[in-house]
Amino acid sequence: QVQLVESGGGLVQAGASLRLSCEASGSTLRGHVLGWFRQAQGKEREFVAFITETGSSTFYTDSVKGRFTIFRDNAKNTMYLQMNSLKPEDSAVYYCAAGFSASPRPRAYDNWGQGIQVTVSS
Fold it and tell me: Is 114 helix (H, G, I), strand (E, B) or coil?
């Protein structure tokens, strides 16, 4: 069982950048598809991005394309989400997840972090 812990969230102004990290313990992230999801207050959890097992492919939701970058370091057992040009509508609790299917659907992921708050002020 993979345990995932997010870090790097916080409160920033619009236009700023943040880098989220997702560190795994208990098992290796090798062989897992990794994803980022977010949930704004009062809304359903939504897909942000995923990266395949070797990092050779990535996929983003339209609203973050060109601003967010997902990448991984399997040697460090860690995944990242670089978020640039942040907007107030990016404010949410961000979750990292690990699974075995390259999918934007939450049900494809078996292991989840506890989430971390990102707040972007206007």
Answer: coil
**DSSP category for residue 49:** E
CB burial readout 97-108, b (16+ within 10 A) else e: bbbeebeeebeb
What is the distance between the alpha carbons of residues 122 and 120, in angstroms, rounded to a whole number?
A: 7
* Per-residue pLDDT tens over the stretch 72-108: 999 999 999 999 999 999 999 999 999 999 999 999 9
CB 118 within 8 A of CB 19: no
Give the chain's radius of gyration (CA, Å): 13
Tokens of 85: 């040009």
Tell me: pLDDT of 23 over 90. yes
* Closest by Cα among 35, 23, 21 to 105: 35
Query: Which tokens belong to 79?
Result: 């995944």
